[in-house]
Design goal:
With 118 residues, this protein is an alpha+beta fold. The chain is built from three helices and six strands, in the order αββββαββα. Helix 1 (5-15) packs across helix 3 (91-111).
Length: 118
């Protein structure tokens, strides 16, 4: 999996009206944050965060789930969806889908229990 820096720059440009996009490299890809909230992963395309509350919208748009094959040969999926094709040339489309992904990221963060102090 290769990380496309051009996609990061595109996301920064298109999503500027929504907030600051930052990233952290991770295993050949990059995790994207909007004002500190995880909302996407990029490799050679954008994968937006999803959750059970937003799955119907992603399904209706035909956006497949992120999947990979584990070391045991089992196919695993994660709560990320392939971005619709129009996000790569339409800032409003990217903003719409990224907003849905940020909402999923905020719900995910709210569900996590705080870590216990050592």
């Amino acid at each position: 999996m290769a990380f496309d820096e051009g996609l990061y720059a595109l996301a920064q440009e298109f999503l500027e009206p929504l907030g600051r996009v930052s990233m952290r490299r991770m295993m050949g890809a990059a995790v994207l944050y909007l004002d500190g909230t995880v909302f996407a992963v990029i490799d050679d395309r954008i994968w937006f965060k999803s959750d059970p509350e937003s799955d119907a919208e992603w399904d209706a748009a035909g956006c497949e789930r992120f999947s990979f094959t584990g070391k045991d040969g089992k196919v695993e999926t994660m709560n990320y969806r392939r971005a619709p094709d129009d996000v790569y040339d339409d800032a409003e489309a990217m903003q719409r889908w990224a907003s849905l992904a940020v909402a999923a990221g905020l719900r995910s963060a709210a569900r996590k229990k705080p870590r216990k102090k050592a």
